[in-house]
Amino acid sequence: MIDKIFFNFTRFSALLILVIVAWIFVVLFNHSLEAMNTFGLDFITKDEWAPNLNKFGAYAAILGSVISTTLAMLLAVPVAIGVAIFLSEIAHDKVKSFFGISVELLAAIPSVIYGMWGLFYFVPIIRDIFGGMGIGLLAAGIVLAIMILPFMAAVTRDAMNTTPDILKESAYALGGTQWDVIKDVIIPYAKAGIIGSLILALGRAIGETMAVTFVMGNVHHVPGSILDPTTSIPVTLANEFTEADSSLYFSSLFGLALTLLIMSFIVITIAKFYFLRKARRA
Amino acid sequence: MTAIQKRIFINKIALGFSTLSAIIALAFLFWILGVLVMKGMSALNWNIFIYEGAPPGYDESGLKHALVGQLILVGLATGIGVPLGILAGTYLSEYGKNSKLAHTIRDISDIMMSAPSIVIGAFVYAVIVMPMGHFSAWAGAIALAIIMIPIILRTTDDMLQLVPGTLREAAFALGAPKYKVIKDVVYRGAKAGILTGVLLGIARVGGETAPLLFTSFNDNFFTTDLNSAMPSLTVTIFNYAISPYADWQQLGWAAAFILSMFILGLNILGRIILFVGKGK
After folding, report:
1. A280-to-A163, A190, A275, B103, B156 alpha-carbon distances in Å
2. Architecture of domain B50-279
């Protein structure tokens, strides 16, 4: 009797996850219907976002999300791979554990603090070097890159560490240098895992709100250069959700949320179920 | 240069670049930590814990409202999220095992773990804030709990599976019903691991800002009313940091410092528990 009750409790909790995820999609879809019916495809291809005229085109926000994440990836990926190589192949054990722990603790610092740091310390530097406002895509990309770096380096290192020692040792026995071993043994062996880890970090960067809200500018137009202030999907949501005053405005914001959720779902699914699963099987 | 010299040279350059990138990464991260500690320490004083929010320019302004609000929100989220997460993890490990349903739930919950937290905020806004007509601590706590469940579920599932099957069989052989086996043998064996998972889960949602922006919203005054907007450290950091007032920004740094110490503390505690548990 108690056995049955306990079993049903656990099953209920487990099924609740599926229900919540499905519910999230249904709710976001229903609430964005009005915007979709009004604008159709224009919603994602037009960049005019004018609440006073009841015109909502999310192109600038989507573009801002894509560019800022791409920029962050371009900056973070080489450094993260370098750090991962350093941690798994070069560093001595003591350095390794010190580095490893600091990297993991830094991954735990709330993103709002990265954003705050970016606004007060990094934006002025960009302003001094490149001129302009300092706030914009470049600042967002850099802050985002710094924020995802610890996570990215940690998972890439884990992927590299899966290479069996015996493979490395046989390459050394053939007279390979450390770099030969890294480039010809470790990277080919751990390729799927590394790519999966990088894409997973990308999935996190797309949805990151607080680190970029401070430094993006929230201006709805397609940027002319990476120094221009613009907006992204999470930034728009964070800034405008509590200000929306018409149902069409709300519906458009829910449309943005749905777009973001679908984008990150696709990215994370590719990372987890294509690359990382392949890595585990290998 | 002979071929071997060339390879050794390339090796040095490549390893040099790798070490350099590690130094660059560490420099940035210590820069951020340094700023956080310096700014935070200089902004800390007793007033912060005694007074609630005040308009800019007042000496008697503090963060009591946000500290208490943060504890209430995270506490409620823990109260909702931890039992659900542990029960769901128990189902996966003890009942579902390798069934298709269990795998689907694991996959979906894994994806949820990396889903954008602001979207969860929008969802909770639609299903709780809109029907109720106002922001509330409940809404914020539920948003945090939704983020927490997949984390707890995952660690519980993993940790329970580490408990040897023979232990369960031994308990079954003594005639114990399944729930008793789970409660007295499996949970007991995985205690340290589950506790670590819970602590890491709390640390993770403790730093979340985005899902609170339009669920628990924010408030500059002390409140314990769960049906009204509730201040939180994270949203307060955000609001104070983007304000043009120097003293509010100062308070923002103090809040950022307190929050980071809280979260780092939970992380370290979690690791210690896991370490001690393993040592036994």
Report:
1. 12, 10, 9, 16, 21
2. Orthogonal Bundle (1.10)
- Give the DSSP letter string of A195-256: HHHHHHHHHHHHH--HHHHHHHB---S--SSTTS-B--HHHHHHHHTTT--SHHHHHHHHHH
Check residue B133 and report its DSSP letter: T
- Domain range annotation of chain A: 3-281
Give the model's pLDDT for residue A5: 92
ipTM: 0.91
Nearest chain B Cα distance for residue A17, angstroms = 7
A89, A96, A209: best to mutate for the B interface, most B CBs within 10 A = A209
pLDDT band at A282 (very low <50, low <70, confident <90, very high): low
**Which residue positions in chain B have pLDDT lower than 70?**
277-280
Among chain B residues, the shortest Cα distance to A209 is held by B210
- Nearest alpha-carbon partner for A216 in A145, A140, A143: A140
Torsion of CA A58, A59, A62, A65, to 10 degrees: -120
B129 → chain A, closest CA residue = A242
Q: What is the pTM of this model?
A: 0.92
Give the span between the Cα atoms of A215 and B165, in whole angstroms: 52
Nearest Cα to Cα of residue B14 among A256, A216, A182: A182
**How far apart, in whole angstroms, are the C-alpha atoms of residue A74 and residue A149?**
11
Q: What are phi and psi of A215, to 5 degrees?
A: -115, 5
- How far is the C-alpha of B229 from the C-alpha of B97, rounded, in Å? 42
Spatial distance between the Cα atoms of B58 and A110, rounded to a whole number of angstroms: 28
Q: Looking at the DSSP assignment, which residues form a beta bridge with residue A217?
A: A230
Q: In terms of CATH architecture, what is A3-281?
A: Orthogonal Bundle (1.10)
Size of interface A-B (CB pairs under 8 A): 255
Q: How far apart are CA B107 and CA A22, in angstroms?
A: 14
Q: What is the pLDDT of residues A156-176, one digit of tens each?
A: 998 898 889 999 999 999 988
* In contact, B73 and B144? CB cutoff 8 Å: yes
Among A residues 96-155, those touching chain B with beta carbons less than 8 Å apart: 99, 102-106, 108-117, 119-121, 146, 149-150, 153
Contacts of B15 (CB under 8 A, 6+ apart): A85, A90, A178, A179
Residue A72 to residue A109: CA distance in whole angstroms: 18
Task: Judge whether A58 and A41 are in contact, CB under 8 Å.
Answer: no
Distance of alpha carbon B217 from alpha carbon B232, whole angstroms: 8
What are all long-range contacts of A37-45, with beta carbons under 8 Å and residues at least 24 apart?
A: A38/A248, A38/A251, A39/A252, A43/A252, A43/A255, A44/A259
How far is it, in rounded angstroms, from Cα B48 to Cα B184? 45
- Span between the terminal Cα atoms of chain B, in Å: 57
